[in-house]
Hints:
By secondary structure, this protein is α+β, with helices and mostly antiparallel strands.
Amino acid sequence: MAAVLTSYSFAADLRPNPGAISARAANYDQSGGSVGDVSLGRYTTIIAPVSIPTGVLPDREPILYVVKAGDTLEGIAASLKVGVRDITWSNPGLKQPLETGATLRLPPVPGFVVVVKKGDTLAGIAATYGIDPTTITDFNRIRSLPSPGAMLVVPVDPTIGPNLPNGRPADPLKPGQFVCPIQGAKIIQKFGPTSFALEPPYDGYAHFHTGVDIIAGYGTPITAAAGGTVTGVGYLGDYGFRVEVTDSYGFVEVYAHMETGTVMLGQYVQQGDRVGLVGSTGLSIGAHLHLQLEVGGVPTDPLPLAGCDLA
């Protein structure tokens, strides 16, 4: 069963090699075999070169972390040496501030934890995340999918990251990093408390800027900072015309004050795909892009943005 703890340190780091297989899978004869609901044969990955770890393997069980008073997402990630994105990916619907006493699922290696649901298949789970089924079976030491409610660790190469639900790479340009939506454009206002009176009160401050403002002319193309699903399109109060993209890790990017959007609700976009055009709709005094990042429903500083001018 999963370990429950309030602090953790890694014994080692496992970076799975796509296509790697275990000795168990290799024992199937060349005419064919299966692991759970996945068929294996002569021309599957079972004849690929075997990658053998040179260090001690870390614990393979999911970590269950009980939230303490004062805990933050960033603090937990730092103390347990796990990525914030790995935490959000493992806990769909996560909200902030974190609730004291709540239990978070954390992966023991780079990757995420998935809970088996009724109707799931091993092949289906693997296809959702664009990985080889043997990656799941080998790491979790299983031959078939466990019962609904069971947890599986899905290791992911941190330099690649998980895929979108359509199987395409989520962040092909800068894996694990947000890219400037307007390459080379200047950031004219950063995230945080401000003296600019147009900004509303937030988090105890009289005026607080909940994103970053990027200056650009009317009609300048805006591209996705990360790959994900379009979860909002249209006018929304002070944001004017906005597009929301929920990325592959559950982070929500809000692109506001746009002239118009160029995507549809439910559409998958990849990092660098066009999502709309710069405008000055809503509460805006000139053409620019307001980029807001929300993690667990809370505005969070999206910096650094690769390719933006901070001068």
